[in-house]
Amino acid sequence: xxxxxxxxxxxxxxxxxxxxxxxxxxxxxxxxxxxxxxxxxxxxxxxxxxxxxxxxxxxxxxxxxxxxxxxxxxxxxxxxxxxxxxxxxxxxxxxxxxxxxxxxxxxxxxxxxxxxxxxxxxxxxxxxxxxxxxxxxxxxxxxxxxxxxxxxxxxxxxxxxxxxxxxxxxxxxxxxxxxxxxxxxxxxxxxxxxxxxxxxxxxxxxxxxxxxxxxxxxxxxxxxxxxxxxxxxxxxxxxxxxxxxxxxxxxxxxxxxxxxxxxxxxxxxxxxxxxxxxxxxxxxxxxxxxxxxxxxxxxxxxxxxxxxxxxxxxxxxxxxxxxxxxxxxxx
Length: 331
What we know:
It is a single chain. The protein is α/β, with parallel strands linked by helices. It has two domains: 2-174 and 215-239, NAD(P)-binding Rossmann-like Domain (Rossmann fold); 182-212 and 243-272 and 288-330, UDP-galactose 4-epimerase, domain 1 (Alpha-Beta Complex), CATH 3.90.25.10. It is 38% helix and 16% strand. The protein is built from twelve helices and 13 strands. Helix 1 (11-22) links the parallel strand 1 and strand 2. Helix 1 crosses helix 7. The longest helix has 21 residues, at 89-109. It is globular.
């Protein structure tokens, strides 16, 4: 098959392209390189089965050009992270909502045979039940979460109304090589590994007892591929590791000193996916245990050498709007 991958040069998108090309598919990737980096795709520079378009999904003509010879679409392109979404919600709406609309309209016009969307578990906000199932209340806490949820609603509506077979995958705390490290203060692995390389203490939010459903990237792209090959449609699936792990456990695996910084409003004490549905309907199961995944990442720690090194003071400055707008009064 000929696949289009949006967000091709990003963390998950580039790993997905690796997998698709090993399966002997033809792949077209589109990315505006605002978040992703072309270096993530350098291994495919001479591959005749891969074509890259530098373009923005917010431009409908760019999407149509990239999709013209494709059979199916993996839609991963999005703006991520909490802090910049609070500071600049319009950019997030344009990328994650308007951009998704453009991809869906192109898919309709091109009569795409299947569509798989990368949704976010952040739509659950502060869940009441763990593990959290797909039927849990939707309570997005910040514009990133909201715009990813609105994108998901568009996808599910187009699937139903315009008969575009497809599914949405709600991803939980994906980690692994090529995780984005540039720009704003963001995911914990990039922050911690850069601090480890700089021989600085890890900045642990709160007391570190909070847990996350850390899911290794190879398991996530396997879920995308499994969902694409399935004939199941009009469904939403959680994609998680099958467990939840504390930040203190992560610190013990990484090894090093740490300091504590204030707990942040609007962050859940736990993320933990109920993956019963995807295991039952798609026969997908995660394969990489948390400790094994962390070891794999430590073996590639040098790839994080150019990541920004955050400390207590710079984090306080970067997250000031987080505390300002996500105070207790808001939920």
